[in-house]
Amino acid sequence: MNGETRKILIRRIAWFFLRAFTFINGVFSLRWSYFLGSILGTFAYWAVGRHRRIAMESLDIAFPNLSIKEKKKITRDFFVSMAQSAFEMLYFLEHTDRLENVKIQGQEFLDEALKSGQGVILVTAHIGNFPLMSLKLAKSGYNVNFVTRPMRDEKAGDYLYNLRENAGVKSIFSQPRRECVMNMLRVLRNNEIIITQIDQNFGSGGVWVKFFGKLAATPVGPITLSMRTKAKLVPAFIYRTGLGKHCIQIFKEEPLIEASDKDEMILKNTANLSHIIEKWIKDYPEQWGWIHRRWKSQPSEKMRAMKFRVEE
Fold first, then answer.
1. Is pLDDT above 90 for 162?
2. For the segment 177-216, what is each residue's pLDDT rounded down to a tens digit?
């Protein structure tokens, strides 16, 4: 079997399971979905050795003083949380009337930021059941746009995006880049909310800031967009508090740190937001995506020599 045939087969299998799990979540209770998610998450922890190793390596960087036993527990808990979140999201997309156990704290900060009329860039991370944040805010009456990468499997992607749109969440695709920027400018002019994440490796396109003490390539889109449009930067994240229970924590607007140089301003503000996200992860380590290679890209000597590209 060649590589292309294998990809097609994997996508067809994934499509089958996506539809099957959507059907199951539409019929059975949320408690049953949690039970199934716990089983599959535990199985994935043992079966997917490569991602388990990546998680342990990431934890070595972030929490070097933890024991191996503690790091393994965080990793296992993350796998279970990730599987449960997937089932849970499918459940709530089919039952948007059952979001009463998703609470919002700090909603007044979001309302205050929207009063400017310039739109809000809600900066978050891959922590907790992060897609659920957009669903809850949309259900609460906000105009929500979620920045996301197009899925490689177009059929599965269209299915999920349509489910989200029917639930009131609009998608802004990160590619093509120009179209993404134009869409973000449009919704901010309409005083809507953009939800975006800045906690994954960004290759050579952003800046390098310290994340748990080690340089990490970080996107600068929210900062440059705020500088261009005057949209408010509002940090927020969601964390699990129990069976089917979550809390969305919204913070006060994070004013831009001024600097005489534009590039310095971008670097300082990106570092500031990254340090805020780091604090969230320290509070809820089992709910962050450790299987992503956050520190994969490191700045070259040429990049280090450039002004305001690397945090000192």
1. no
2. 899 999 999 999 999 999 999 999 987 778 999 999 999 9
Are the C-beta atoms of residues 278 and 212 closer than 8 Å to each other?
yes
**Torsion of Cα atoms, 252 then 256 then 257 then 260, to 10°:** -170
Task: Return the closest-CA partner of residue 287 out of 297, 296, 277, 295.
Answer: 277
Structural contact between residues 118 and 231, judged by C-beta atoms closer than 8 angstroms: yes
Structure token digits, residue 225: 């967009």
**180 CB-side CA count, 13 A:** 16
Please say if the pLDDT value at position 289 is more than 70.
yes
Q: For residue 238, what are the β-bridge partners?
A: 248
Sign of the dihedral through C-alpha 307, 308, 310, 311: positive
pLDDT in tens, 26-38: 666 788 888 888 9
Q: Which of 55, 46, 51 is nearest to 290 (CA)?
A: 55
At 67 the three-state DSSP class reads coil
Instruction: Taking residues 164-182, report their average pLDDT.
Output: 90
DSSP assignment string, 280-308: HHHH-GGGB-TTS-TT-----HHHHHSTT
Among 86, 305, 116, which Cα is nearest to 193's? 116
Q: Which SS3 state, helix, strand or coil, does residue 263 take?
A: helix
Q: Are 290 and 66 in contact (CB under 8 A)?
A: no
Q: Which helix (H) or strand (E) is 214 found in, with range?
A: strand 214-218
| 3-state secondary structure at position 6 | helix
pTM: 0.91
Percent of the chain with pLDDT over 70: 90
Sheet containing 144-148, strands listed edge to edge, beginning at the edge strand earlier in sequence: 102-105, 245-250, 232-242, 120-124, 193-197, 144-148, 169-173
Regarding beta strands 144-148 and 193-197, do their DSSP bridges make them parallel or antiparallel, or are they unpaired?
parallel
User: What pLDDT does 164 receive?
Assistant: 83
